Amino acid sequence: MKSEKTGRVTKTIEEINEKIKQGSVCVVTAEEMKEVVQALGAEEAAKEIDVVTTGTFGAMCSTGVFLNFGHSDPPIKMQRVWLNDVEAYTGIAAVDAYIGATQQSKKNEEYGGAHVIEELVKGEEIELKAVSGGTDCYPAKEIRTVITLEDLNFAEMVNPRNAYQRYNAATNSSSKVLRTYMGTLLPNFGNVTFAGCGEISPLQNDPEFRTIGVGTRIFLCGAKGYIIGHGTQHCPGYATLMVKGSLKEMRPEFMRAAYIPGYGVTMFVGVGVPIPVLDAEMAEKLAVRDSEIKTKIIDFGVQRRDRPVVREVTYSELKSGKVEINGEEVRVSPLSSVYVARRIMDELKTRIERGEFFLSLPVERLREGKPLKPMRTATKLVKSVMSRVVVVSPETGVREAAKLMIDKGINHLPVVDDDKKLVGIITSWDIAKAVASGKTGTVEEIMTRNVITTSPGEAVEIAARKMEVHEISALPVVDKDGRVVGMVTSEDLSKLLARNR
Amino acid sequence: MLLRLKFDSRVVKKPVISSVTLKTSALINIIKAEVGPRKGELIVEVEDSMTEKVEEAFREFGVSVCRLKKKVQRSDECVHCGACISMCPVEAICIAEDGRVEFMDNCVLCGNCVKVCPVKALSIPV
After folding, report:
1. Does B81 contact A58 at a Cβ distance shorter than 8 Å?
2. Is A61 an annotated catalytic residue?
3. Measured between alpha carbons, how far is residue A484 from residues A287, A391, A428 in Å?
4. Which of A46, A117, A435, A446 is deepest in the core (most CB within 10 A)?
5. How many domains does chain A have?
6. CA distance linking residue A63 with residue A481, whole number of Å
7. Closest-approach residue (CA) in chain B for A340
8. Do A279 and A409 reside in the same domain of the chain?
């Protein structure tokens, strides 16, 4: 195992597997390895340690299971399939379907594909419904039955994108609570959330993909699984894995269905990857610490694809529970569980030591990945749909304002000061209420002062979402100096939709 | 010690907190306050040694007082992800050395953590 020329340690996966067979393999967890390298140095650590177990346990939306139900009599070509009222994808062979973790039930948005997958693993009964148009070879048109995991011929978890190397952290500069896939984000930088397990995550410990590749045997939710390639959205610094494993071997303690309030259903997935210590360079990489792993805190208050970066941060700062933003201490929530990741690393270590789990040589290395391209869509901006605006001053009489609305055929009047800056808004409903209660003075007395606005450069989808959330039908368009430059109404937006169709 | 104070329509308008502070010289930290036109509810923190004196003073003003000893309940469903941690207004949730999420005794039962738990492991005790 020592090169005769250099005297340095080099090992092969075959040699390590031989040690596993003989029961003499030396396995440590990623956390233990950091200590070993610090104490002994990389060269000695590579000599002593054969395998390092890494792990992660976090919400991974890109998860699902291929199911093969077997044929009914008379047979059916399942064109649509529901499992406990959650629809599965069926554009494949007659009795195959793919149930995605994030697909939500028709009846209960807090229940979805992830819950069906978890219940299958727990051995619970699942209601299966399938419909078809009927063909000569598959005459049946509808099936309703109850199945369990045992009844299925195949149930293979195939996840297009798991185990992110690192993930952007999230915060919120806006004045509203945002409920996102990164959890609940409190207003005015009220908190930060982050995902990923940092220094114990598989891809952080083999960043050059020397042993993590196509065909690497892994631990997936308790089952023996495999890496089948790089994941979707795999890109430099943010590597991901596509993985598979049999649902029939999985254990409920290493997976969990979840509902992120206001966002939707997802699944906590447990991934463990054994990394062979082939030489000192690998040992060096396995010593990576949270303080060396950087990510970005992104502002979800800006509802666009390219959200601004608030600051760079390390995983050790994030894991400390508090980070500083604009000179203030902000509390941090992790969304991945280091506790369960540790149990995964321990479990995998035990299986290797007992000779139940052998390492595999990847048949192909993962490629480095390229920067991601954005989707080719034309973003429609507010300035292209806004209408001309009629404004009034605070001193305008209510009667005069009412007349103006009727003359111009409008229902909203922004109220502006001498500099054309927005100070309030009145609607035809405000006027009706004012008249009914005998208030016929100036608009200042009846106007709404806290006005929800948009800006010329905002995407129309964001403006539409504001109207929906606040249950209003128009938004004044305000430039960066606070001056009113236009108006967007729900009518403008429905005209735009009609045109696009 | 955390105390829940309930004010009815008679006492809600009176400067009760300041009066009790002056009378007992106890430092009273207001954790949560809901004040309406006819009733109010406060959660306050006082030093353990002053608890009895403060409770007595509040009762003299006609405020109903009860000690908050319970904290948020957690089931075995918890996966220790920590989504709840930054929701807590009194920093009663943290991650222990072994990686588990831990709930401390200063919980004020506000329920913010219950609402964000992705696996519905948390509940308010009845």
Report:
1. yes
2. no
3. 57, 8, 19
4. A117
5. 3
6. 46
7. B79
8. no
